[in-house]
Specification:
The chain contains seven helices and two strands, in the order H-H-H-H-E-E-H-H-H. It is mainly alpha-helical and 168 residues long.
Length: 168
């Protein structure tokens, strides 16, 4: 039974990922890590290029090119970081509006898979998903990576533990 459940979960996971990517492509006319970059930068912590690179799993040159594109599109601006040597990334007003559209589009793309379930089934699924996520062994970076497209206004009690804190 475990193999079947794992297989079905894998299919659902791919369906969700495909729907999220399609929604992002329709909204941004881009896919890849651009949507996640907007969401992560939009958390408002002013990440550096290096922090963004690590969260998104990009090479240094890849992260620089991504940020250059976002700055060129008027979605991100570079500001003085906490450390005078670092640059902090922040969304512009246009970037915040696009991020909001992305987050709404992401949930809209996923909801049809959930709304076919009864209220009781949705509650049960939420409990199971919470339990599964809480069982993961993760670092702070892992958590940031997993939550790179999350709407933190919806998920206010993240179940993903941080077993091994590290500075992101």
């Amino acid at each position: 039974m475990t193999d079947r459940v794992a297989n079905l979960l894998g299919v659902v996971g791919l369906a969700v990922a495909d729907r999220i990517e399609e929604a992002a492509r329709e909204i941004l006319d881009r896919a890849g890590e651009t949507p996640a970059a907007l969401v992560v930068i939009g958390y408002g912590q002013g990440p550096s290029n290096d922090q963004l690179r690590r969260i998104l799993g990009l090479s240094h040159p890849g992260a620089v090119r991504l940020v250059d594109r976002l700055v060129g599109d008027g979605l991100v601006e570079r500001r003085q970081g906490r450390d005078r040597r670092a640059i902090a990334l922040h969304l512009t007003d246009q970037g915040r509006a696009l991020r909001e559209t992305l987050l709404i589009g992401r949930l809209a793309a996923i909801k049809p898979l959930v709304t076919v379930l009864s209220e009781a089934d949705q509650t049960g699924l939420a409990i199971l998903l919470h339990r599964m996520l809480a069982s993961m062994e993760t670092t702070d970076l892992d958590r940031c990576t997993l939550c790179r497209l999350c709407d933190d206004r919806v998920c206010t009690d993240c179940p993903i533990p941080v077993d091994k804190p590290e500075i992101v």
